[in-house]
Design goal:
The chain is α+β, with helices and mostly antiparallel strands and about 110 residues long. It has three helices and two strands, in the order E-E-H-H-H.
């Protein structure tokens, strides 16, 4: 089991991950940090838990839209194929990330 250090909203976090997943986790954390930064720019520092929760909700919404597009029949009559399956796996990964972010936000809120 590996660990990776990430920063969200200027705060460092150390996360456990599978060996070899460190770079992926860093990229995902950077994406989350950008989303949090967007909210900080709009509403200011309203609390870490709320900012992370807002980011998680936006990411979950993006995931829902992507899943809906994948589930919709293609205009050209072609099935999902490999690209659709890869996108589905990516959507599942994002859903898992959103769930983990919600759990982190809940822990931060109760701290």
């Amino acid at each position: 089991m590996a660990t990776v250090a990430v920063t969200i909203n200027g705060r460092p976090f150390t996360l456990a991950c599978d060996d070899g997943e460190e770079a992926r986790i860093r990229r995902l954390a950077q994406y989350v940090d950008r989303k949090v930064g967007e909210f900080v720019g709009r509403v200011g520092q309203i609390g870490e838990a709320r900012l992370i929760l807002l980011a998680a909700l936006v990411i979950a919404d993006e995931l829902a839209e992507a899943s809906a597009r994948l589930a919709a029949p293609a205009d050209d009559g072609v099935g999902k194929g490999e690209n659709g399956e890869a996108a589905g796996r990516a959507a599942d990964s994002l859903l898992g990330l959103a769930q983990r972010l919600e759990a982190i936000a809940a822990r931060l809120e109760s701290a």
